[in-house]
């Protein structure tokens, strides 16, 4: 039977550790809160994922970073806080390798932690960074054409509307590397053989609309065997539909077998 | 029974902080967050959270409410209903009767943690329903935060919101020309089968308040109709009350008008001067 233990890792990092029935030396998963949603995840996605992975023999921490859920306000360097959390998990749970990440800002944060800490051997990226570029425009066009007659109105509106100030989007709200840096950084992760699971949903259509964007963003490293990429345009950013959450859990579970 | 407690990390020892724990029977373990009062507690409350997606939308807000009350001498125990949040149980195990039973478990847990202190039942949104039952059963003061007065009306709102989200091109940009199909067992991603919908539709806060509850304090949207049985009504500005109106969560802060409502509730607690 799996066991769950509340855990305080210090520096404002608090969460719930799910452990498998048998002690394990496998990497420990750290699911970071997605945006402002607390550790249980959107519609309990992290709870279900943690329990599924525990049934597969992994320990999983779902955690609130400072300023979210029950955690105290943010005080300093988030990456240092998470690395300190790794140290505590090493003491408390004997973990020496980690799979980190999550949805949206959690993917961004996981990316930075993975670069900073060699104990990270796996990176879970749900709607992470991508460069827009030409493929994005092609994807946008396909998307509009798929909308039938209403697309014409949208396109006409674009040409006839007065130019407005650009809306605040992911590029402004999220802590993303530059295109050049992202390529170098994925190259570094691949050189370390960090397993990467990168999934873009339809909810990321403000910056990701076409499968070819992934390779166009990350270059040669995107094709490395340790990088798993997919695009689910029918799925929303929060995995609202139960079918989408089930599909996600299945995909992550399958990917996780490589760490068993 | 308390299964496990998160010990504060060494650098936080001595601070008046919260403790996570699992409480309740082994076959129905509830995730709880106990927040000790600063100094000696003059009251302790059990906070029944909203249902479904409103649980995670309200989580930070209610954590901050509990933290502010703790600074004013009021301990609290927050919990997740069985089958919701971080508690055990599949989402299909969530029922209205179960939520009420879980509120009782939480009351026993807070009594164990701060014995001999006056207790308060606190319910937010749909959590008003189990909280009101708890208050009636144990003759407790009742605090309500944006309570749902009419289950049928709320259900209608959820059905409309569900339809909007399924047809939303912001949520599903690749949706084409047809909305996503409705799921008769779900509302806005949460499991809500016909039997649970029928139970929710039958809930009316007026029926739960009525005789026997004389000490009811309500924090509510300034636009909401007053609740007949409330002894005190505190108005939240619309900007602070609209957090449940959309499913995408924004940053949560305790703004001065919200802080004033919390402080007024604290004043109403035993030993606060206006009780």
What does this structure look like?
The complex is a heterodimer of chains A (260) and B (275). Chain A is an alpha/beta fold and 260 residues long. Chain A has a single domain (3-259), classed as Alpha/Beta hydrolase fold, catalytic domain (Rossmann fold, 3-Layer(aba) Sandwich), CATH 3.40.50.1820. Chain A is built from nine helices and eight strands. Chain A has an eight-stranded mixed sheet, sandwiched between helices. Chain A is globular. Helix content of chain B is 35%, strand content 19%. In chain B, strand 4, helix 1 and strand 5 form a beta-alpha-beta unit.
Q: Can you give keywords for this protein?
A:
heterodimer, A: 260 residues, Rossmann fold, globular, B: 275 residues, alpha/beta, nine-stranded mixed beta sheet, two-stranded antiparallel ribbon, 11 strands
The average pLDDT value of chain A, as a whole number, equals: 91
Largest interface: A-B, 43 and 48 residues
Write down the domain tally of chain A: 1
- Per the principal axes of the C-alpha atoms, what is the gross shape of chain A? globular
Oligomeric state, counting identical vs distinct chains: heterodimer
Task: Return Rg of chain B in Å.
Answer: 19 Å
Ends distance of chain B:
32 Å
Envelope shape of chain B: globular
Derived structural class of chain A: alpha/beta
Low-confidence runs of chain A: none
CATH superfamily membership of chain A, which one?
Alpha/Beta hydrolase fold, catalytic domain
As residue ranges, the low-confidence spans of chain B are none
Q: Helix tally of chain B?
A: 8
Element-by-element helix/strand order of chain B:
EEEEHEHEHEHEEHHEEHH
Structure, briefly:
Chain A is an alpha/beta fold. Chain A is built from 9 helices and 8 strands. In chain B, the strands form 2 sheets. A 9-stranded mixed β-sheet of chain B has the order 1-2-3-5-4-6-7-10-11, with helices on both faces. In chain B, strands 8-9 form a two-stranded antiparallel sheet.
Write the layout of secondary structure elements.
The complex is a heterodimer of chains A (260) and B (275).
Chain A: E1 3-10, E2 13-19, E3 28-32, H1 45-55, E4 60-64, H2 78-93, E5 98-103, H3 105-116, E6 120-126, H4 133-145, H5 149-160, H6 170-173, H7 179-191, E7 195-201, H8 212-218, E8 227-232, H9 242-256
Parallel strand pairs in A: 3-4, 3-5, 5-6, 6-7, 7-8
Antiparallel strand pairs in A: 1-2, 2-4
Chain B: E1 2-5, E2 18-23, E3 30-35, E4 43-48, H1 53-71, E5 74-79, H2 96-113, E6 119-124, H3 128-138, E7 142-145, H4 151-167, E8 186-187, E9 190-191, H5 194-201, H6 205-209, E10 216-221, E11 232-236, H7 238-241, H8 256-268
Helix pairs in contact in B: 2-3, 4-5
InterPro entries (chain B): AB_hydrolase_fold
Organism (chain B): Dokdonella fugitiva
Protein name (chain B): Serine aminopeptidase S33 family
């Amino acid at each position: 039977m799996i066991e769950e233990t509340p855990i305080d890792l210090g520096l404002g990092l608090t969460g719930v550790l799910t452990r498998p029935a048998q002690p394990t030396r496998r990497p420990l998963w750290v699911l970071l809160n997605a945006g402002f949603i607390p550790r249980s995840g959107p519609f309990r996605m992290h709870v279900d994922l943690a329990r599924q992975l525990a049934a597969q023999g992994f320990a999983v921490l779902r955690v609130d970073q400072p300023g979210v859920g029950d955690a105290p306000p943010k005080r300093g360097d988030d990456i240092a806080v998470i690395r300190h959390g790794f140290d505590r998990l090493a003491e408390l749970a004997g973990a020496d390798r980690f799979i980190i990440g999550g949805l949206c800002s959690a993917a961004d944060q996981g990316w930075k932690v993975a670069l900073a800490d060699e104990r990270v051997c796996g990176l879970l990226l749900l709607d992470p960074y991508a460069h827009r570029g030409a493929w994005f425009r092609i994807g946008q066009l396909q998307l509009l054409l798929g909308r039938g007659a209403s697309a014409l109105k949208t396109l006409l509106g674009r040409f006839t509307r007065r130019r407005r100030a650009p809306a605040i989007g992911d590029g402004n709200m999220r802590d993303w590397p530059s295109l050049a840096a992202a390529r170098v950084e994925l190259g570094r992760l691949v050189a370390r053989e960090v397993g990467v699971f990168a999934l873009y949903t339809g909810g990321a259509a403000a910056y990701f609309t076409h499968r070819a964007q992934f390779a166009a963003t990350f270059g040669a490293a995107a094709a490395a065997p340790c990088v798993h990429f997919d695009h689910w345009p029918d799925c929303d950013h929060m995995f609202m539909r139960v079918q989408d959450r089930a599909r996600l859990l299945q995909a992550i579970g399958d990917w996780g077998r490589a760490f068993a | 029974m308390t299964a496990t407690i998160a010990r504060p990390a060494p650098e936080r020892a001595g601070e008046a902080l919260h403790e996570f724990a699992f409480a309740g029977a082994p076959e129905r373990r509830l995730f709880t967050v106990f927040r000790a009062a600063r100094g000696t507690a003059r009251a302790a409350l059990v906070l029944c959270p909203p249902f479904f997606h409103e649980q995670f939308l309200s989580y930070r807000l209610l954590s901050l409410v509990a933290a502010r009350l703790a600074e004013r001498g009021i301990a609290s125990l927050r919990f997740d209903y069985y089958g919701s949040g971080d508690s055990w149980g599949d989402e299909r195990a969530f029922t209205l009767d179960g939520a009420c039973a879980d509120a009782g478990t939480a009351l026993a847990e807070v009594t164990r943690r701060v014995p001999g202190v006056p207790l308060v039942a606190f319910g937010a949104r749909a959590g008003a329903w189990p909280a009101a039952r708890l208050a009636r059963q144990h003759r407790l003061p009742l605090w309500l935060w944006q309570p749902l007065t009419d289950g049928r009306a709320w259900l209608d709102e959820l059905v409309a919101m569900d339809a909007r989200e399924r047809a939303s091109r912001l949520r599903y940009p690749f949706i084409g020309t047809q909305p996503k199909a409705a799921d008769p067992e779900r509302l806005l991603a949460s499991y809500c089968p016909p039997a649970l919908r029928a139970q929710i539709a039958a809930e009316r806060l007026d029926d739960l308040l009525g005789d026997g509850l004389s000490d009811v304090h309500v924090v509510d949207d300034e636009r909401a109709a007053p609740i007949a049985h409330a002894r005190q009504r505190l108005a939240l500005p619309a900007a602070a009350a609209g957090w449940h109106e959309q499913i995408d969560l924004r940053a949560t802060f305790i703004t001065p008008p919200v802080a004033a409502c919390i402080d007024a509730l604290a004043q109403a607690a035993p030993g606060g001067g206006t009780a």
